[in-house]
């Protein structure tokens, strides 16, 4: 039952059980179980993951918001997945192929920072 939200650079997670959820709201006025403020590099990975889930990553967005060339910054996994036929990379964007769309949830962790590689979620 737990839900996640993101606001102003912070990930929030509510209490997972209904009992704890209701108790937390009663005692504290909210159901938040934990919160985690993302560093800039974590925000960048988050944005990449969200755009991949939408099948298209804008190179201009990453240049404007993070000052990076997304194809160069994430070259190793992008090159690997392009060779497998799961995505296409050009100067403007990274686009998932049909095969990539079917596998996106399995290969997204390849873009996570090393400290998050073994986590189920952030």
Question: Which architecture of the largest domain does the CATH hierarchy give at level 2?
Answer: Orthogonal Bundle
User: What is the total domain count?
Assistant: 2
Q: Give unreliable regions as ranges.
A: none
Radius of gyration, in Å, reads 17 Å
User: Can you count the helices?
Assistant: 6
CATH class of the largest domain: Mainly Alpha
Mean pLDDT: 92
Intertermini distance: 17 Å
The proportion of residues forming helix, as a percent range, comes to: 40-55%
SS-derived structural category: alpha+beta
Strand-and-helix sequence, N→C? EEHEHEHHHEEH
The count of β-strands is 6
Strand portion: 15-25%
- Subunit arrangement of the protein: single chain
Q: What is the general shape?
A: elongated
Q: Look up the CATH topology of the largest domain.
A: Arc Repressor Mutant, subunit A
Spatial sequence of strands, sheet with the most strands: 1-2-3
| Biggest beta sheet summary | 3 strands, antiparallel
What would you say this structure looks like, in words?
The chain is an alpha+beta fold. The chain folds into two domains: 4-37, no CATH class; 40-116, Arc Repressor Mutant, subunit A (Orthogonal Bundle). It has helices at residues 18-28, 40-53, 59-66, 70-73, 75-83, 98-107; strands at 4-7, 10-14, 32-37, 56-58, 87-89, 93-96. The mean pLDDT is 92. The strands form two sheets. Strands 1-2-3 form a three-stranded antiparallel β-sheet. The chain contains six helices and six strands, in the order ββαβαβαααββα.
